[in-house]
Amino acid sequence: MVMTEPLISKECVRVEFNDPNVQYEGRVAKEDSQNGAQYDWPLVAISIRFRSEEAGPVVAVMDGAFNRFSALVTSEDTVGPAFSEKRIFTAEAPGTVRKVVLGQVPGRGVYRVKLAKLTEPCHTGMPMLPRYFGMGWMSGMQGVVSFRAWELPSGSTLLPPPDRPQRRIEVIGGSDTCGCGAESSDTRKRTWWGAFSRNEIHNAELCYSYQLATRLNAEVHVEAWTGKGLVKNAFNLCNIFGKETLPQLLDRTLATSKSPLWDFDWIPHAVLIDCGGNDYNNAKPTSEEDFSDAYTDMLHMLRHNYPEAFLISMCGGSTPSDHRRNKAAGRVSRAVKRFADDKAVFIEVPIGITSDDDPQGHMSHHSEVGHTKISDFLEPQIRELMGWT
Question: Known InterPro entries for this protein (predicted)?
Answer without folding.
Answer: CtCE2-like_dom, PCW_deacetylase/CE, SGNH_hydro_sf
